[in-house]
Amino acid sequence: MADKQISLPAKLINGGIAGLIGVTCVFPIDLAKTRLQNQQNGQRMYTSLSDCLIKTIRSEGYFGMYRGAAVNLTLVTPEKAIKLAANDFFRHHLSKDGKKLTLMKEMLAGCGAGTCQVIVTTPMEMLKIQLQDAGRIAAQKKLMAAQAQLSSSPAAGLAEPAVETRTTATQITRELLRSKGIAGLYKGLGATLLRDVPFSIVYFPLFANLNKLGQKDPNVKAPFYVSFLSGCVAGSTAAVAVNPCDVIKTRLQSLQRGVNEDTYSGILDCTKKIWQKEGPTAFFKGAYCRALVIAPLFGIAQVVYFIGIAEFLLDMLPKPRA
């Protein structure tokens, strides 16, 4: 990746296009992942990925699976652009001596990329999680209310269920800025770093080395399908490896809680309560969903990035006359 010298605008455009295509394809699975991770023992609404998606469609309609997608589609362009371009930047500067990058330097470049991207990732995830999880909390409250009414007066007819008031990302942003300032949008920053930095440390070196296996000549790009498969394998591997950090981040960033669900004061408190009340397997809730999201997302991202759609688009622009 460091060997390919393209302009910074082209890198940013490629990263943005890659993110937009990837998110559009896998967002419903990401919504299921968030809801599965946030539900706690004794308050389970969903048993699996398919169960979550089916119940979401039944209660919220088809477009219910895309709650929070607008936030992602808006912010994924700078997020993916920063991530991919930053990794290229660090790889380039770490290989100035012209020698092949060592594994440690590849990991260091990934660390830099993961650190840079949280500027956009943290507020994006913060807003997305509130919108994704709102349907789960509303469904849980309706179910609890119906059960309470049946147990208190079995002979009485059921009252009309309360209509869920849907909030928008703009409303959430305004409320957070009004009550907590800019820090409100960066709640869970530490947990986001804890997830994204190790992810990039694993992902980028693994992708680079897998992609090299498909290169017949060091000076010739690997075929697009090799880049796609390398992105899929590296992405899913890194995603599962850091899933415990993703569970902690999701729990910490959720502003609304379901009935009788725990609240957390920080990373250590969240880790302790999950371990004690839900067991170690809870840290891998939604792991297969996350792998299904990340694999095609990064596979598509690397194909778009390596094909270089941006170079083609920039070449189409009219050139200034001499």
Q: Count of helices?
A: 11
Query: Roughly how many Å apart are the termini?
Result: 33 Å
Strand content: under 5%
Radius of gyration: 22 Å
Q: What does the main sheet amount to? A: none
Q: How do the helices and strands follow one another from N- to C-terminus?
A: HHHHHHHHHHH
Which bin fits the share of residues in helices? over 70%
- Summing up helix and strand content along with how strands pair, one would put the structural category as mainly alpha
Choose one word for the global shape: elongated
Q: How many beta strands in the DSSP annotation?
A: 0
Low-confidence stretches: none
What would the keywords be for this entry?
mainly alpha; 11 helices; 70% helix
Detail the topology: elements first, then pairings:
Layout: H1 8-38, H2 49-60, H3 69-94, H4 103-152, H5 169-180, H6 189-213, H7 224-241, H8 243-253, H9 267-278, H10 287-307, H11 309-316
Helix pairs in contact: 1-2, 1-3, 1-4, 1-10, 1-11, 3-4, 4-6, 6-7, 6-8, 7-10
Characterize the structure shown.
- This protein is mainly α.
- It is 70% helix and 0% strand.
- It contains eleven helices and no strands.
- Helix 1 crosses helix 2 and helix 4 (103-152) crosses helix 6 (189-213).
- The longest helix is centred in the middle third of the chain and has 50 residues, at 103-152.
- The two termini are 33 Å apart.
